[in-house]
Amino acid sequence: MNVPCVRVARESGEATRRRLADADLLDHDHEITVSEGHLYIPIVDADAVPADFEVVDYEPPTRETQTTPTDILGFEPSYERLGEIVILDEDDPERAREIANAIVASDLTADTVVNRASKIKGELRIRDWDVLVGDSTETVHREYGHEFHLDIDTVYFSPRLATERHRIVEQIHPDERVFDMFAGVGPFAIPAAAAGAEVVACDLNAAAVEFLRENAVRNDVSDRLTAIHGDVRTVADDYEGWADRLVMNLPHSANEFLDTAVLLAGDECLIHLYDIQHEDDPFGPGLEAVRAAAEPAYEVAVVEERIVRSYAPHEYNVCLDVRLTKA
User: Fold this and answer.
1) Which residues fall within 8 angstroms of residue 292, CB to CB, at 6 or more apart?
2) By the number of CB atoms within 10 A of the CB, which of 62, 87, 141, 178 ranks highest?
């Protein structure tokens, strides 16, 4: 039976699938099919598909029923995927073990199952884990056509920000100069370099920078990406006035680095400032801090105010996109 499908070149398949998934348009009753260099991705509502996609009628195979952790447990567990690692966030160790066993018994593929054992801590923003299944906390995470090798035991990485990272990368033009001030293993920096930008990526975590350099090679962008281990405040003098775009993804603390951001900014520079703020005024404190650091040397204009996700009760993880223009 023919069903509506988005037809897309194979190399664009993962990015397309993610966009359709974010819009809740995937038809999970039929398989994604490859034919003659194209992917056919079944969808539930052809009229809701963005206009830049091609929708065709196609006859994909019906998806065979698979056993899920929910089928085994009798309730729907909460977890997230990072490469071949399944991450739980359970306060009860016995419940965590029960869920891990169900994941192993299900058709869900996973090499490792871990449970969060601490909050994010320290200036390197890492946490402790209880490893319930498997023996390695390393994995390769794939996101919008890029691969990131990482170890969750030594670096911070959030798969929940994939759509937000893609939003930024889609704005980047070839030959831009992008400075990622808190780069981690490169989820902003590497796609930016792949988009044609010249990228400088800095991080305080030595392990993250090692993975960043490896991932630059893995994604064939090492010729356009300079990875630096260290505090960005000690690096900035070498790049004074250099950046066309600054990524400041260090919620809770990024405001403390705005003087450094202004030093890095060129005559015109777009700053993506990530922050955690109360729902009553999610963007005001960030904008006030930018103005205090940049004015009167720069004119400050808000480009976009974006709530990325809920962070805690009455608190949001937000992004403030601000353009600085030399006065």
Assistant:
1) 258
2) 178
Do 92 and 37 lie in one domain? The reply is: no
Type of residue found at 176: E
Q: Is residue 153 one of the residues assigned to a domain?
A: no
CB 4 within 8 A of CB 43: yes
- Total domain count, the chain: 3
- Tell me the pLDDT tens digit for each residue of 53-99: 999 999 998 877 678 899 899 999 999 999 999 999 999 999 999 99
CATH number at residue 47: 3.30.70.2580
pLDDT per residue over 36-47, tens digit each?
889 999 999 888
> What is the three-class DSSP state of 91?
coil
Q: Which domain holds residue 87?
A: 69-136
pTM of the complete model beyond 0.90: no
Token pair of 20, please?
A: 């359709």
β-bridge pairing 54-58 and 85-88: unpaired
Rounded (10°) CA dihedral 168, 252, 113, 209: 60
181 in a structural domain = yes
Q: Does residue 102 contact residue 108 with C-beta atoms inside 8 Å? A: no
Q: 């698979």: which residue's tokens?
A: 66
